């Protein structure tokens, strides 16, 4: 399944799968947005699948946001599981 990223106000809607075939596009696009803005909010309601490589990219984007003191927020269905993965395994 393909991946689309659409802006709706200050939130970016992610639709499709975040997996090995889509992570390059996903990472490049979101890393650019994160580096050249004060904050980045993504809504994952439209995401059907996030595999290990997708989670790795989310962890990398989170690390970049911390390094550059930018706000990176993930909202939508499943965001608690992602939050737990990002922060509970970091300790």
Task: Summarize it.
Helix content is about 45%, strand content about 35%. By secondary structure, it is of the alpha/beta class. It is globular, with a radius of gyration of 12 Å.
Give an overview in words.
The structure is a single chain. This protein is α/β, with parallel strands linked by helices and 91 residues long. Helix content is 43%, strand content 34%. It is built from three helices and four strands; from the N terminus they run ββαβαβα. It has helices spanning 23-35, 52-67, 79-88, and strands at 3-8, 11-18, 39-50, 71-75. The chain has a four-stranded mixed beta sheet, covered by helices on one side. α2 links the parallel β3 and β4 (71-75). The radius of gyration is 12 Å and the shape is globular. It starts with a strand and ends with a helix. The model has no long low-confidence stretch (mean pLDDT 89).
Notable traits:
91 residues, alpha/beta, 4-stranded mixed sheet, 4 strands, 43% helix, globular
Give a topology summary.
Blueprint lengths: L2 E6 L2 E8 L4 H13 L3 E12 L1 H16 L3 E5 L3 H10 L3
Q: Ranges with pLDDT <50 over ≥5 residues? A: none
Shape: globular
Described by strand count, sense and barrel closure, the largest sheet is: 4 strands, mixed
Biggest sheet strand order reads 1-2-3-4
Number of helices: 3
